[in-house]
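Hi W., the adenosine-5'-diphosphate complex you wanted:
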Amino acid sequence: MLTPATPVSSLPDVGPRRAERLSKLGIRTVLDLLYTLPFRYEDRRGVPSIGNLREGEQQGFLATVSSIRKKEIRKLRAPVIEAILSDDSGSIKAVWFGQEYILKLLPEAAHAFFFGRIEYSEFDRSLVLKSPVFEKVDPGQKGRKSFHVNRIVPVYRESLGLTSSFFRKLIGETLLSLWGSPFDPLPESIRKKHGFDSWIKMIVGLHFPAAIPSGGSLEFFLDPSYGPRKRLIYEEFFLLEFLMFQKRADISAQGRSNRYRISAEDRTIFSASLPFHLTNAQKKVMEEVSEDLGKDYPMNRLLLGDVGSGKTVIAAWALYLAIKSGFQCALMAPTEILAKQHEKTLTRLFSSIGLTPFLLTNSVRGSDRKAIVSGVHSGEISLIVGTQSLIQESLNFSCLGLVVIDEQHRFGVDQRRTLMGKGAQPDTLLMTATPIPRSLALSYYGDMDLSVLDEKPPGRLPVKTIISRSSGDFWDKTVRPFLERGEQVFVVCPLIEESEAVDAKAASSHWEFLSSYFPSFEVGLLTGRIPFESREKVMARFRSGEILMLVSTTVIEVGVDIPNATVMVVESPERFGLAQLHQLRGRVGRGALPGFFYLLPGEAASDEAIARLHVLEESDDGFFVAEEDLRSRGPGEFLGTRQSGAPAFICADLLRDFDMLKSVRVDVKDFFQEGEAQRMDHQKWVWDWTTVTDFIRSRYTGVEEWIGIR
Ligand code: ADP
Ligand code: MG
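Structure:
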């Protein structure tokens, strides 16, 4: 019996060669095949016979090739192919110009569906069909069982020699054998709630839609509001969310006794140790974190917060609670500069409480390193801050209870998992300043709890963003006055080495230029190529104000906090994503003086690219910028290669269907809350759950990877 899990290779019509080609297109099972959707439809209803074709119209009809031949016409360079097409009612001449291969495709007696313009020819004194497109049809298929005519037909993308009509017939036959199948990835309660048809009806509706509603066109079937498509979008979100919620359920099922002792006093002590008042957003998120820590399963929380929103305090709060309860904690950051900064901040914050963080990076060597590794091992060190060095094999903890990862998107799933693996069910707090649009965050981190710091600490002046296209005196007129007042300037270049292929200025040659342009000011250079010690020195000199202008690549992108830096100039900003630029912008205006963010597009920058940059002029809300970035570039490019394994939906669109996604999440949550028994019951509603999960996993490549934060 045919099931959704049946391999396509065992379908009639699919021999080894076709099976291999289908497999190359990712089509291995009947499910894969049925989710290969047409990209458009053709109305082939009421197909006329040759006897009632009308002049001047595009028409399609079914006919047999009575004869076909090549005619050389001297005036024309290319040969003309002429065929006589016949049916019971008569015959008509069809001509093609210069398409000799048609002789091979349409031998005499071939039966095909032809579609093209019918014209009256003076020369022939009759109607002719000019350069029609055609599709061969099996002779016996004129009647009710035909997939190719007398109906609205699907048109599939042709690839690797697999034609649209091949797909149509294969899918059509498969559907006939599957008709009445109880298979359905959506539970009945959900179907009832939304009035969705059964799965098989949806699939049929997607491939072989019935009547067009009056006044509508074929486009109707491609619209997300078309019933079967709407169900499919829902289904895609549902399955994905289902997997994520299941993951979460697994985590909570890990069960762990509540091990933190949190008191009201803690809050008072912690807040009192801060040099500022917490924002409401910070208070809210601190509450979310301590609530998590009070649960009897591990925390798994993602903190989204724009640059400067004060995420470090949240990290400190979680660390404080965990350490106070006798656990070791690790804070990992992607760069040495950032790790060092965190160590400093935490040292300052925790000094009144008597806690000392230790730093572990690549540049901690020799006996210092040994002492730290053994301190972590024995449990003497309760707070370790560092870079990837923290995940090296030789570092073992005695009781790691909490892992905090800053700029978490900079790390791979494996790296995050390795660090977490050094403890027994540790709590985790992941932080990111990359403003991820909520739509993406919901679907990408659906297995995590989300906290958002959507309020900036008070007193910060907005950074003014200016796109400057006038070159020439920019440095003299615009930048020099800042330097003369002693304000510090970042200059960011997109590439390190001069490259002819791109019009980006290399940081080092730009540095040479600016050093000689401003001989009386100290200009520093910071790139990833410079050895770490020298980089540290440069940073220290910039921080102390000795260096006034810092030319760099994006190594300064994350975290760096220099209150006296008021200006940032970005060369060739069109080469960056908006979200990344927004993050860079967060490096300035962190002190008492207003900040300025100058964008100097390259000469080759397109108008479109520059229009995109205006979003930054308009808004300093990271989430808004990210939404716009996503809108203009699409999820694939927005996320870049780092997040490969991102789901590729068949029909759903995160932006367009965001409201649907939200309601699906509510449904799935309810579904899970109905209890274990209900959930176990899902095995029944999908007649073959393994097939469905295999299918989702294979389609959303690497879904395990990006769902499997743990
Ligand atoms: P980010 O979210 O970018 O990591 P940080 O935690 O580095 O932000 O905070 C940015 C700056 O704002 C730091 O200098 C920090 O001391 C300061 N800060 C954080 N919270 C507050 C607050 N509630 N009031 C005033 N300043 C704050
Ligand atoms: Mg930070």
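Residues 311-312, 406, 559 surround magnesium ion (ligand 2) (CB under 6 Å).

W.
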